């Protein structure tokens, strides 16, 4: 999955321009209600401006409201391209309020934490509802393939592999449709446990 299908388009994004003053940037941030917005030069992404940085600059560093916004622009590398993988974006966004989506230096939009969460919620069936089984097993070569092979006859709506990198233990979360019968669930549990796995948790999530 690539970022291009997930980001908020630039037309819906509040920005500051790099010819603004610190005071003008503060006004944009205050009116928008956002703690951080992208800064652009024309259509090119140049970094982020944070409300907290504006206030620290004015009150702690004795900066002036008439100073250039360039004094407080940061995170110039806080961007991905439309073709960046979702996994890479997920790892990159952790320390940031959002990621700019940039192509040939031009700001196309932003990838927000809420968009990232929507993807994860979709995998877990939060929107449509689903039955989650958390299955534990030893982390050996081919274990995930062996597990999924046992489930190939069933309708599986989502799979998440947890504990990656551990040497002895791995959990896998599978999402079944809400319409899955108790008989089918019992069959699944029996089949995976026969293969040496163990179902350690079951949870039903209804439609949101």
Main β sheet profile: 4 strands, mixed
- CATH architecture annotation name of the largest domain: Roll
CATH hierarchy, class of the largest domain: Alpha Beta
Tally the helices. Answer: 6
Class of secondary structure makeup: alpha+beta
Number of domains: 2
Question: Which range does the strand content fall in?
Answer: 25-35%
Number of beta-strand segments: 11
Oligomer: single chain
CATH superfamily of the largest domain: CBS-domain
- The fold-level CATH name of the largest domain is CBS-domain
Q: From the alpha-carbon coordinates, what is the Rg to the nearest angstrom?
A: 23 Å
Overall pLDDT: 89
Spatial order of the strands in the main sheet?
A: 1-7-6-5
- Taken in chain order, the helices and strands follow as EEHEEHEHEEHEHEEHE
Separation of termini? 24 Å
Pfam families: CBS (PF00571)
Protein name: CBS domain-containing protein
Domain CBS: 8-65
Keywords: CBS domain
């Amino acid at each position: 999955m690539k970022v291009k299908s997930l980001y908020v388009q630039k037309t819906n994004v509040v920005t500051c321009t790099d010819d603004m003053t610190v005071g003008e940037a503060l006004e944009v941030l205050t009116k928008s209600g956002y703690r951080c917005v992208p800064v652009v030069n024309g259509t090119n992404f140049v970094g982020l401006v944070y409300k907290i940085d504006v206030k620290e600059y004015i009150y702690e560093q004795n900066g002036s409201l008439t100073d250039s916004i360039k004094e407080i622009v940061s995170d110039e590398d806080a961007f991905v391209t439309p073709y960046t993988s979702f996994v890479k974006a997920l790892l990159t966004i952790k320390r940031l309020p959002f990621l700019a989506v940039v192509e040939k230096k031009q700001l196309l939009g932003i990838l927000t934490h809420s968009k990232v969460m929507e993807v994860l919620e979709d995998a877990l069936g939060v929107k449509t509802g689903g039955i989650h089984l958390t299955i534990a097993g030893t982390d050996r070569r081919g274990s995930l393939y062996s597990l999924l092979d046992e489930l190939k006859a069933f309708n599986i709506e989502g799979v998440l592999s947890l504990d990656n990198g551990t040497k002895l233990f791995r959990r896998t979360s599978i999402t079944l449709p809400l319409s899955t019968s108790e008989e089918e669930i019992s069959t699944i549990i029996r089949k995976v446990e026969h293969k040496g796995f163990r179902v350690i948790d079951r949870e039903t999530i209804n439609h949101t």
